[in-house]
Amino acid sequence: MSLTYRVFRSAAVVLLAASLGACAQTYAKRTVTETEAPLDQSGAKAPGGEPLSVRIEAFDPGKLPEDPNHAKGLSPEIRNAEAYYVPVQIKNTMQRSGYWGPVRVVPKGSREGEVIVTGRIEESDGEILKLSISVKDATGRPWFTKTYERVIDEAQYRNASGVDPFQGIYNEIANDIAAHRKKLPSGDTVAVRQVAELRFGADFAPDVFGAYLKKPAEKDSKPDGDDTLKKLVALFDSNPTPDDATLYKVRRLPSPNDPMIARVNRIRAREEYLIDTLDQQYDGLARNLAPAYTRWRESRLKEINAVRAVDDAKAKQQSEAIAIGVLGALAGAAVGSQRNCYSCQTTGAVIAGAAIAVAVKHAVDASDQASAETKLRMTTLVEIGKSISDDVKPVVVEVEGRTVELKGSVDQKFDQWRRVLKELSEQENGPQQPAPAPAPKRDV
């Protein structure tokens, strides 16, 4: 066997052993978001008349990562807590912008509202926050759906100074919603407010308010002569607006002196009272959560970086082992060519394998140590998350001399309240009267 052949064969043995021991990066390195996102503040009264009110529904917590490494240190309880915490941060940011009327966090599925914001947590592990956000108005017209993502490092936790380290993503969301709002003609904002009022009334007195509001599934009796033209225009529009058939529209407005309007306004005032009460609860939950949540996110990021450092150390030691092994194999091959010593040819491979085994052991030990702090923080945060989901502190409210006690989670309290309002509406209104005969439309 030639010297050249033995040299290459021995080197191949070492490289094969190294490749078998090689490990992929547990956490891929992410690029930190460097762009600043200052909040756009109006500095004056918002355009288009009275500012619209906003309801931000509690978020969908999303799913945990399927990869066990990426899911380590996460839990459904923490995600449920985040589903309340993040909307509160967006609410506070929107309020500071000055573009809006009341901004409130409400339970999922609350439906009514002038502007409705919904969201889903796609990723959240202390280093990255990725959110899917959808915004629409009371007419059902979608404003936009967009995914936001921000990556931070440990320095941003140290420099936060009491501000959420992911404040930049909340600023981006608030800025985009305000930018869309500024594009709306004043007539559209008026229509949004009118539809919101009529939709609320139709929820409690459908037989009365049904005559005033056209629902998406309904069609006006008079055909639209421009329908064909609209369809042709839509074919060439890269960002077409929703078809009118998919939106709520005002058929006509009720008389300001209609006693039903006064009754529904009283009911709506009660609704707003509860929304304010629940919003205060969400604020309280977020404040109680913030200290433990911030510490958990920071320790989770430290764990991620510690694992990355271990992976880097393993890769470095492995490279050194490969170098030593190749040199040993080459030397052994040279000696073996003279002495016919096969064991000399594989000495380098043995050295490489031993070095890799030591690196693996060090990696496991370091990883376990890095996760200890995260586990400690996680225990506290999971308990807070459970308390949020199972919050049974009752809310006592008075309605028309009647005391109502709402129990259970925030969502359950809201459902109980809506049932109470419907009962009161039926008691006040009595049997539903037929809808008034159609009258000529007046300008809206």
Written overview of the protein:
By secondary structure, the protein is α/β, with parallel strands linked by helices. It is 56% helix and 12% strand. It is built from 12 helices and 9 strands. The strands form 3 sheets. Strands 2-1-3-4-5 form a 5-stranded mixed beta sheet. A hairpin with a 2-residue loop joins strand 8 and strand 9 (402-406). Helix 9 (259-339) packs antiparallel against helix 12. The chain starts with a helix and ends in a 15-residue tail after the last helix. The model is unreliable at 220-226, 231-240 and 434-439 (pLDDT under 50).
- Estimated helix fraction: 55-70%
| N→C terminal distance | 97 Å
The secondary-structure element order is HEHHEEEEHHHHEHEHHHEEH
Main sheet properties: 5 strands, mixed
Strand content: 5-15%
Task: Give the structural class.
Answer: alpha/beta
| Neighbour order of strands in the largest sheet | 2-1-3-4-5
User: How many beta strands in the DSSP annotation?
Assistant: 9
**Judging from the principal axes of the Cα atoms, what is the shape?**
elongated
Contiguous uncertain segments of 5+ residues: 220-226, 231-240, 434-439
What do the pLDDT scores average to? 76
Number of helices: 12
For the CA atoms, what is the radius of gyration?
32 Å
